[in-house]
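Reply to dn_fold:

You asked what the input looked like. This is it:
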Amino acid sequence: MSALLPDIETKSLLEIQQFQEKKLIDLLSYVNTHSKFYKSRFKELGIKIADITTIADLQKIPVTTKDDLYNHNQDFICVNPDNIIDYVTTSGTLGDPLTFVLTDKDLDRLAYNEHISLACAGGTKKDIYQLMTTMDRRFMAGMAYFLGLKQMGAGVVRVGNGMPEFQWDTIKRLNPTIAIAVPSFLLKLIEFAEQHHIDYKNCSIKKVVCIGEPIRNDDFSYNTLGKRITDKWPLQLFSTYASTEMGAAFTECNEGKGGHHHPELLIIEFLDDNNQPVAKGEAGELTVTTLGVEGMPLIRFKTGDICKAHDEPCLCGRSTLRISPILGRKQQMIKFKGTSLYPPALYDILNTVSYIKNYIIEVYTNDIGTDEIVINIGAINPPDNFDKDLKDHFRAKLRVAPTIVLESPESISKRQLPEMSRKPITFIDKR
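and this is what came back:
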């Protein structure tokens, strides 16, 4: 295995499947011994793990849902408290945060994941990474990046999120080559640089690994946010998708054609609403089975994120599956005046409007039981007829128009980043 490209990721899909099936047998034996939740579920449903030897056999096991994790959080823990090194929580985007525990081995797995993921995105030990994301507040991602870069041998500057002035001061002092950041924050860095006459186009940072927000369309072209960044600042942007529950990431390579799957860490499925595999090329809910996890392994966990699988070999040399940009979260789907849509479709339109500096989308159920959308925008010098123009813009793209409420950018900013928030809040579901 190369430190940068594990051998398994260049094998045929059949060889990868056979490799994973050996890992699956080990996993089922482990959870049947150590997981109160899965041991009870197998016994209750009469599931014999000896009968599950292939990836296809996984369908004999029910999916694990977020409700299962909420209702039985402690029952998923497979180790004694004295073996737990780190406690983290999910971001709570779709509900109360969940607690996850990691052993020393799990932290090594996390470091390995980010090492090969960031190497996939072209990083080397010669790079200096500026982390524009928090490492505190029980946030797994910031720690994962740090551990992975430590394993890679790259330099790390732990600046944290926000603080444009401090970010630029750090860039000037230390000349980092790659940043890890929420992409919309890059627009704030650009705005600050332009206001303070900073030559940002010629600074040391040439690449950014983008977290938390999509920067590509379904065809892998840059979406509006990606275009707004790169039209101003000649950066190479890389998408990455991850979650606390799976302790792994799907990160783009230089080809920019989807996030690469690490088959040594996850078995993945794409399921429909009835938990059946979707047809080839169709979007489905990404469902993961974690491999090599000690603390809280999961079997067939439905992430809630909708995307597509791409199985053609990549020009980078990897033959692993790649996932498309996340189309949306299943629980966030909005049915508005006969149209089904996800928040990213609204973000993409709002990001094209120059006078909109920030926004929060709120969805609630009206008095006749259907979804309503209110978009609170923070705007600077909007035109007199901005409300009509914006609604026309939405109708042209989506055939429907939400309610628009004008606020100051400062007011929106405070609501986006409450005191304990780890990333900006742009969508509030009140249904």
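Residues 333-429 form a domain with the GMP Synthetase; Chain A, domain 3 fold (CATH 3.30.300.30).
Hope that clears it up.
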